[in-house]
Write a structure and sequence with these properties.
9 helices; TIM Barrel; alpha/beta; 38% helix; 16% strand; eight-stranded parallel barrel
Length: 201
Amino acid sequence: MIFLISPENDITNEIDILHQLFEAGLTHFHLRKPNKTFNEHCEYLNQVDEKYHPFIMTHNFPNELTNAYTLKGIHLEERKWRAQKHKLQNYVSDFKKQGFTVSSSYHETKDLEAQTVAFDYYILSPVFGAISKSNMKGRGFDVKHISKFITGMGGINAETTPEAIALGFRGVGALGGVWNAENPVQSFKALQEAFINVKQN
């Protein structure tokens, strides 16, 4: 499984590139625009062909956006799942009962291991030095001993994907490795190819 996180701030031709990425096989797109209002999220989604809405995970306005659009599901960043405290189980169950995918983020393996609420997948970062944040050092997490569906984020591209899989990650996610590339679509396809190749071998 490969997921892609949106650029925090809109970039030139972003929607056109996104359509090409969906056409290339992107199935998990994380819409993370922390500075956008609910209406601005709607404006963004209205530009995306409706047939691709079921591939989109939202990081913000989960109730409102899943009511208004046929999205894949919601993602809980670490501060958001922590804020739920004892209500987290019911919160996640409510979305899952409606058929939505629910994922969550972590920055320490011990927190991920200790999580008793079952998410569809877990994002652990940074695995390698982040491409989108030059000051973020990679941690090289080894997750082979954890049975959960863990995906790796941070410094992921076609070159680092085999190493991530070797560390036990069952999926990988990109941001800078795709969006910062000269040709984002080609970069995504190369990542896809690397992932498929390492999974087949």
